[in-house]
Amino acid sequence: MKKTAWFLAALAVVCACQKDPETPDDSTQEASLPEAPAQEARLLFLLNEGAMGTNNASLDVLNVAQGTYVTGAFKKQNPDAGAGLGDVGNDIAVVADEVWMVINNSGLVEVVSAQDQKEIAAIQVATPRNLAFDDKYAYVTSWNGAYAKGSYDENYKYVITDYKNPKGVVYRINLSTKKVDGSVEVGYQPEGIAFQDGKLYVANSGGISSQLAPNYAYDKTLSIIDTQSFTVTKTVDVQVNLKNVYADGKGNIYVTTLGNYADVHSGLYMLTADGSVKHVGDYVSMSTILDGTVYCVGAENEYDWAAASKIYKAWTAKEGVKADWNFTMDAAVPYGLFALNPETFFVADAVDYWNPGKLSCYYKGKKVWTVTVGVCPGHFAIW
Amino acid sequence: MICLQAPDSLQASYVYAVKELPVVRPSEEVQLSQEVAPPVLVADILRRFTGVQVKDYGGLGGLKTVNVRSLGSEHVGVFLDGIQVDNAQNMQVDLGRFSTEGIGQVSLYNGQKTRRLQTAKEYASGAAVHLDSKRPVHSGGQFRVRGGSFGTINPSASWNQVLGRVTLRVSAEFLHSDGQYKYPCFDTTLVRENSDIRSLRLETQLFGSVKGGEWQLRLYAYGSERGFPGPVIRRALGFPFSAERQADQDLFIQGGWNQDWTARYATAVKFKYANNYTHYNTHPEKNPMSMPWDVHYRQQSAYLSLAQSLVLCSPWSVDLSTDVQHNTLDADSGQFVRPRRTAFTGALATRVVWEKFRAAAHLVYQGTWDRYDASEAGGWSRENSYRDAWMPSLSLFYAPWKWLEADAFVKRSYRLPSFNDLYYTQMGNASLRPESAFQAGADIRAQAALRSWDWELRVSPYYNRVSDKIVAIPTSSQFRWTMLNIGIVDVLGVDIKARTGFHEGDWQGVLTLRYTFQQALDHSDPASLTWGNQVPYIPRHSGSGDLLLGWRKWSFCWESTFTGERWSRSANIPDYRLAPWSISDAALSYTLDLSRRLALDLSLRCNNLFNQRYQIVQGYPMPGFNAMLSLTLRIC
After folding, report:
1. pLDDT tens digits for B361-388?
2. If you measure CA to CA, which chain B residue comes closest to A330?
3. Which helix H or strand E contains B443, and what residues bound it?
4. How far apart are CA B114 and CA A166, in angstroms?
5. Do B482 and A305 touch (CB under 8 A)?
6. How many angstroms away from the CA of B236 is the closest CA of chain A?
7. Which of residues 44-63 of B touch A (CB under 8 A)?
8. What is the 3-state secondary structure (H, E, C) of B543-570?
9. What is the Cα–Cα distance from A344 to A37, expressed in whole angstroms?
10. What's the number of CA atoms in the CB half-sphere (13 Å) around residue A177?
């Protein structure tokens, strides 16, 4: 009996001391571009959202010149940041050789160097969603209104003042000090934001309001902020559940909507320079903009919850005019779209939203390569 | 005092009446009276069983579900005195709700339990955990206080009173734990917050006998209030991981009456009414990072079962069991569709029982009607609201010699889509089919006794296939999920258990070693990256070892469990690998006889002796070393 006791104790100790095996580095994949991009791009960044609550947002980097694709670049370049990038990466953008990433459920805006992806700053912002820049500031939309409205006190502690479904805000962050230096209230659960000609355009979704008593209603407005005075100068009705905002550089603003999952479909709307709103087309699952053209992919059976697969159709919009786009892609769950030039597109496939996704490069309508990426690949930026 | 006899020795089984000879033995069976300082929760007993994975979110208040042989916890039926503890909302039973106090025996059946006068639902679940209360034989009582680490205090009291042919048992139990344990959080060490629980359980049971029969009645009330500490993630300073709280009030009344009418014909009637109230609140005023949910749920179920058993001729008997059940779920969240479900389950079973060879065949039919108020739920169809399934199974038993016996089974069972799968506002697909599980398994047992020693070896290979697995798939919006029947999992495994016991003079001892191999592969989509990978949270290798020693009034036990590497998702890559872990617990107990009718048990249980830092579910750290002292006063 003594022997067996010793055996058990030994078993316990052996197991307790077992070390994790060394993980092999298989994070670099071959991914050469068929055509050098017109713009002088060095790196293409892909922010993988990860799954909520599992702390697995990640940053992937495609080196355009070398034709290599590296996954998990943030963790690799910042080995001391034990917690990694965080929980739910929601937006990414490049400004002045810096990559800015919105880490939604971590309550952080992460700033890294574009060159080597080393951390420069992690800025606290409650439930941040999307960002845009002018030459002095970054502007971050935040739902903190919807969750629990409050503000930062002098010690940078977030103090809650109201939590009964108040409105969201846009925070203004100084690009050089990396400090929040102002905020302005917008609509319910603001999402996308774009800057054009001294104005910010903010898409209000009402994603949470739609689930809350007494109204159970989506927001349907676009808030227009004058950056000089940093106040909302105008609120424009568009359609329920606004999502992304694009400025086409010609004075027009495009807004995508998610619809109400019942009778109002997802779609694309245009706010013209004269202030009128035009419905461009329906069905937008993912979209991007290049040189004033908005590229959309949508599912025509998007509200058929029992369908095993969705029927995707691609289309474009230029100057508010919808046109067919002969683009067939093979993706289980198209989740992100990026146009490098009019012939080169990237499609991010979330696969099952839980396991690593895929990124495919399409050139002249043909798939040239596919690489394995992080979980829920959704947001692109180019440097 | 502990009793260390083999619970299921072969010799004993030969003296049962033909009617009572089991065709299949439980895969595991534990008499709680034989445990040294039993753990507070039943889940901690199941953890040691072969083929069982307890998914534990940590702490006494954390959710604990049981997965048997990789079928998924929705396929595991939990039965309290033969009546199913069900949860139509999500089909998962939280075994963290069941205290070891008042439970006499915990057993696990893989495949098919097949006994006389079972309810139809006992035939219908893929695997079954049975919690059976002990029928008191004498008047007497027990007062116990357990307390220890993480601010845990657990007083309980029970009294049994024999009143002629009726025995009354009343019991009460309170549990408080603040759940504040240290854990490594990335590169620092934090204390788990919002992990506390308070619960109170009050029960009255009546056990009675009549000529040729017996009956029992149980009134159960349970209330709890707890926090959910949330997953450990990177989060900006000043924001908590979670402020979620849940309050529960569970009430049920259940009863049963078994009656032998003639030597050949017997019936069993069972019933249950349950009313479960849950209040879930994310408290956005305390955690601005949380979704603002504040929802009250009320789930009710009414259940009636009639089982009939007829011995046709000496070795051959036929059973017919018919169950009806009605479930409702109400909530005050927006657009809630208030689903109602009426289910009929019928089981026809036939058994041939000789001493050396026994066989049983079962055919179960289950049909469910769902209705829901869809006036506010746009885009959902009412189609396919009737679902039905046939579930056949076959069990064989053969004992060529006294020292060797074997049984085998094949079975197809289904689990219904839960109310959440079908009707949850933000995710739901009203045209889901039931999820199917095919199982085939064998159990070979060899046993020997030599002087004061006895030995037992069990080897149980099995193959399972879960198909039409219900999988949650988000749509183009993160707010809107849908459920589809798309998963297939193939499971190949073997459970091995070796046991030896001795009894010599004042000494007695039992050593049990268990090992489980499980290869559970995702075979959903050959084009997928995860095809052929091990499914989440299933270790290929796991095992446990227990040593029990008794000397006069002292008893001691040592329990070690080991779980090999796992992945938190079917992508078996380093990012999602969970390290293997092993923990060891030890307990020491001493019985002090105060008088002829009064005894005091003193015991100390130390869990996670080597202070292992581990996670069963990714993002949910488990407690390190903890200790529990227990004082039990027994009056008989």
Report:
1. 999 999 998 887 765 444 444 445 788 9
2. B527
3. strand B435-450
4. 58
5. yes
6. 5
7. none
8. EEEEEEEEECCEEEEEEEEEECCEECCC
9. 8
10. 6
